[in-house]
Design a protein that fits this description.
The complex is a heterodimer of chains A (115) and B (117). Chain A contains no helices and 11 strands. Chain B has 117 residues and is mostly beta strands. In chain B, the strands form 2 sheets. In chain B, strands 2, 4, 5, 6, 9, 10 and 11 form a 7-stranded mixed sheet that branches. The chains are: A mainly beta (115), B mainly beta (117).
Chain lengths: 115, 117
C-alpha cells in the first residue's frame, strides 16, 4: 500500500518556468510534510516542509501548497533554473504523539530544467 | 561539521557474504534512521534509534538485518548472508530531539551503495 502518491514521474520545463509536483496521502495521522531534493550520488536534502495547520509556505523560490481536506500537497518552483534539475521527493511523517517520526516517501519526480 | 558521515561509499559483496555499513550522525542529534533506496527512487524505511535505543524497527527484515547505535561509536547496519535483492543505496539520516513538537528536519548522509554479485 503506497501511502504517499507522487506525480508526475518526470517533468521537463524551460528556464524560468514554474514546475509543479503533486503528492497525495492517505493516512490522516500524517502531520509533517517535507520536500527533498536529491542530486545523483547524493543523499536527499531538505528543501521546505509544512504542517497541516498552514495552507501555504514559501521559502525563496520554493512554495508548498497544502489542501488538508483533499489530502494533497504540492511543490512549486518559481523561476526555475538549470541547477534545479534533480529528483524531488515528497514525504510525510507522524510527529504528534512521539511514537513514530519515520518518513514515508513518494516515488520521486525527475525534474529537468532546460537552459 | 554538520554532516552525516556514511562509510564506505561503495561496497561489493558476493551473495551470501556479510556486509556492514557505518553512519556517524551529526553531534547532538538524538535520532538516527536507516533507509534503503532501491530502483533509483523508492525509499524503504528500515529502522530508527533514539540515542542507543531502538525506536522503531518495523521495516527491518530481522532474519538477516541487524543494526546498532552504541555510545561513542558510529551506528552500524549489518546484513548477514547478503542476497542479490539487497543491492541498493543505504541512507542514514539523523535529527534533533523534538522540542515542543517541532521537527527540525532530517539530515541525510550521502549513502552507501551496496552491490551484491
Amino acid at each position: 500500500q503506497q501511502q504517499v502518491k507522487q506525480s508526475p514521474q518526470s517533468l521537463i520545463v524551460q528556464k524560468g518556468g514554474i514546475p509543479i509536483i503533486n503528492c497525495a496521502y492517505e493516512n490522516t495521522a500524517f502531520d509533517y510534510f517535507p520536500w527533498y531534493q536529491q542530486f545523483p550520488g547524493k543523499g536527499p536534502a531538505l528543501l521546505i516542509a509544512i504542517r497541516p495547520d498552514v495552507s501555504e509556505k514559501k521559502e525563496g523560490r520554493f512554495t508548498i501548497s497544502f489542501n488538508k481536506s483533499a489530502k494533497q500537497f504540492s511543490l512549486h518552483i518559481m523561476d526555475s533554473q538549470p541547477g534545479d534539475s534533480a529528483t524531488y521527493f515528497c514525504a510525510a511523517s507522524i510527529e504528534e504523539g512521539g511514537s513514530n517520526y519515520k518518513l514515508t516517501f513518494g516515488k520521486g519526480t525527475l525534474l529537468t530544467v532546460n537552459p | 561539521g554538520e554532516e552525516v558521515a556514511q562509510t564506505p561509499k561503495h561496497l561489493v559483496r558476493g551473495e551470501g557474504q556479510k556486509a556492514k555499513l557505518y553512519c556517524a550522525p551529526i553531534k547532538g542529534h538524538s535520532y538516527v534512521f536507516w533507509y534503503q533506496q532501491v530502483l533509483k527512487n523508492e525509499f524503504k524505511f528500515l529502522i530508527s534509534f533514539q540515542n542507543e535505543n531502538v525506536f522503531d524497527e518495523t521495516g527491518m527484515p530481522k532474519e538477516r538485518f541487524s543494526a546498532k547505535c552504541l555510545p561513542n561509536s558510529p551506528c552500524s547496519l549489518e546484513i548477514q548472508a547478503t542476497k542479490l535483492e539487497d543491492s541498493a543505496v543505504y541512507f542514514c539520516a539523523s535529527s534533533r530531539t523534538r522540542q515542543g513538537g517541532i521537527n527540525y528536519g532530517y539530515t541525510f548522509g550521502s549513502g552507501t551503495r551496496l552491490t551484491v554479485v
